[in-house]
Amino acid sequence: MANIENIPVSTTNKSLYIVSLNNPDERMEIQFVPQKLQIDSTANHAKIEVVGRNNPLYHYTTGEDNLNLILDLYADDDDKLNVIQRVRWLQSLRYNDGISRRKKNVMLIFGDLFINQNMTWIVTSVSVSYSDFHELHNFRPQQAMVDLKLSLDPGENLKESDFK
Length: 164
Prior knowledge:
Blueprint: E1 16-20, E2 27-29, E3 37-48, E4 57-74, H1 82-92, E5 106-110, E6 120-134, E7 140-152
Antiparallel strand pairs: 1-2, 1-5, 3-4, 4-7, 5-6, 6-7
């Protein structure tokens, strides 16, 4: 059995974060560098059918940018509570408090990859897989793998030049 003290609880040197823009004091360190970030950009076009034309015309209507990453969360406290607390915080970013508060936006601090000020996101999905449960700690998990999905939600309309 591996010595638990030799297992690193962070490989990012406290430099990768998810930050709540509604309350910048709320942030979560990304403990381990994700193996990959998957970004999907889509464009939607309306089909305009013209009588007598063999092919329709297409009109751009909107686009969407989505980011998917897998986070590895590891308990680094004695009572094994912070894995659950981190997951619940991520899940809370998906919700709002009815019409009394605006939606929650986040920023991903990941080196200079998302340095553009328009790179604000909303959390659209949080899928969790808990593992390594400890009987001594009321069966709390030592680890969680979180599949986090974000959608780009910039403060202003982005243009083609913003991506060049």
